Amino acid sequence: KIQTKKLHQEQQLVVQSPLATFSPHGFILVSGTSSAYHALQAVLGAVVPNAPDGCARIWSNNGASKTLRQCKTVGATTKGDGFELVDMDHLQGKDKIKKMKNGKKSVTVDDKKDQKESSDQVKTLITAEEWVQRHSRTISDLNQIEILVEVRNGETEKWAREEMELGNRIKVGDFVDAQDSTGKWYEAVIRAVDDDAVKVHYIGWSSRWDSAVPRKRGEGKKNLQPPAPLWSHTSPWRNRIAVGDKVEVREASSLVQRPKWFRATVKAVAKEDGDLMEIVGGAELEALEDDEQKNSLPDKEHSRTNTKMKRPLLLLNRTRQVLVEVPQETFNSSSSLSSPSKPLTDSSSNLTTNPPFLRWVNLYGEEICGPNTHLEPEANSKPATITYAYDPNRKPVEVMKSNMHGAGFFRESIRGVPPAPGSVGLHNLGNSCFLNSVLQCLNHIEPLAQYFLKGNYKGDLNKNNPLGSGGNVALAYSALLTDIWGGEYSALAPRQLKQTVANFAPQFNNSYQHDSQEFCSFLMDGLHEDLNRVKDKPYVEDVEAIGMADEKAAIESWRKHLLRHDSIIVDTCQGMHRSHLKCPKCGKESVKYDVYSTISLPLAEKKNDANIPLSECLNKFLSHEELDEDNTWYCSNCKENVRASKVISLWTTPDILIFHLKRFTFDTCKRRGGLVRSKVDDTVDFPIDGLDMSPYILGPTDDGAPPIYKLFGVSEHSGSTANSGHYTATVRNSKDGKWYHCNDSHVGSTFGEASITKGAYLLFYQRSKGQLKWGGMEKAMTKYKLDPKGAIAQDVDGFIEVKSKKKKTKKPVASLNGSVSGRRGKR
Q1: Is residue 726 among the annotated active site residues?
Q2: Which of 433, 573, 617, 635 is labelled catalytic?
Q3: Catalytic member of 577, 726, 741, 742
Q4: Which of 22, 138, 541, 754 has the fewest C-beta atoms lying within 10 Å of its C-beta?
Q5: Catalytic annotation on 433?
Q6: 8-64 pLDDT per residue, tens
Q7: How many CB atoms lie within 10 A of CB 761?
Q8: What is the three-class DSSP state of 483?
């Protein structure tokens, strides 16, 4: 037996009772967020560790026999013992959809350029929890499943259960999952059986869509899979129907071959064995007759059934009904709705003759389908506040042409419901995983996302900044966020942003792999310059802080920074550190306060194969160091570059704190003289919640917004160098607070601790409580009644003067030492 649990650990199996070779039984716990494929592979490794490849396979008990007998219905197939062979290729994601159903046409998506067959290819992996719950019939909280491991002596030996394989026992009238020509899976019924193919009818679709599929794997059409056990590839949504659920209902007066579909809401659900209400409307979509009817009914009903009589096609012959409200219905079905039996609810006896109309439909019939089967999802006009309902049936691919930036290309954005608000996959556009990884992390900086989604950025757009892109990067980023949070897509192709960045940064105008840290820095700088509120930048010089009080020097340095830099990025993502340099020859010192957006942490040396705590990396970053030959400092006394000693201290930390783990090194080859690139693969142990930065901050802190942070994103790298390999991301969704792993277009559930790996590269933290504009510098200026927007100028003698932009006459201002002065001392 396998049982899924939400374990607070990495995706591992926990063997509850030993599985000895002589024991036929065992019990295994599996993390619900782990991959079902890897979990079952681990089961094989525990049960038959020495079995050669191709000599062991797994069967799972779909629970149909017991549950369906309780419901007085028939099984999905005529023959079988309840166990079905597990399709490991499906769990591994090898049967990926390549086509779509677009009205009457089937459109092939050419994704060879962007989805090449390589180690970087995205796999649609199913979690253990999802896989186990797919076996549920009427029990919605099923979390345990029985499996059977079958072993044979060699690859040429016959399997003992070969005759129980679905392809060998399939009969006319059996209910299965079947794949259509577009790669989409549907509930289906077998219409005809041949030696190497079967004809299937897709439940909810007219018979003109019926098609032949291979009976077994490797036969018939190469692009089609053989039929699979019912609800192994589709969702048993009918078993979990509830009042208030959204469905699609066929128009009551529709014709069989060309039905019209409407959205509807479930208002009541009849009991499984309750009295039947009258079904009002046009002809049923399909009917079972002759041999099909015989195989779908219990044996005791065969004798009293006229084989020439047609019966409505009902999945598993279930007769449960639901009452639906159809706002668009024009056929007044409520006026003729009646039944000799007692109505199910009081509401059904008070039906009105005006829209919206209420009518009964067969829950397992063809007049009802799950949401987004025939109709496109409804667009939402409020992307910033949209809510979602999980729907496991993704919408087909919609191919949209675009002529952006003068180039004709396809934008392969997939319409559908993402697993959570804002958790949308991003297509790999050709080694663009570095871009996707960063975008997934920045997407969940909530103040930045809301700034764009609410349109607040429009008032700050600076199209004339020579250091910006004319506002183009900000506009492209805004368009991407609108699509991500708009609720219409499950995966997007960020071509517009990628091309816009490439137009202004030639280093990204190619299909090469790039360093995600370099792209993150460029994108944040680009957004800052496009949204810089300073239209005319004055010339300013750095504040030399030797001889000045630290707080005074820090405030004056920040005020000078604001003269040229003032944006949402400065407000939330920039802090300041104190840099102290000393010449080793003459002893000359220099103290300056510099602004940062990212803290690059060296990795402390690993000891005894243990993980490196993040605190050790911080301590190493803040420790005394001697500059190397490539980073010398010019000493004005010695008139030469020297390897000065340097000490850095953090003065403030911003609301959004980004750490860059310096995993990549460049050393000189002693033999050939060239640069040798290498990567540090040590695991850094960083906290998910409760990162306390107060021991590392030299400046003042605030009790209302303490420097305690929680992780919300990790950009991850696998490979040997920053410009090769593959990038992914693990993010905490800013809306539901849950963790998701983003591997290009695939987004799946995970947990925070899963991000603590050897691949963690960029760490994104946010302040857990409160907000501090400019990392607290705004409050520091308010304390001394200083105008943050005041113009700071220097005269020829080096004196600093503070002027207020709003006042025309000079007035004395309070200095930091309590005196009143219009001028400050010489530097």
Answers
A1: yes
A2: 433
A3: 726
A4: 22
A5: yes
A6: 333 333 434 333 344 567 777 777 777 888 888 888 888 888 888 889 999 988 654
A7: 28
A8: helix
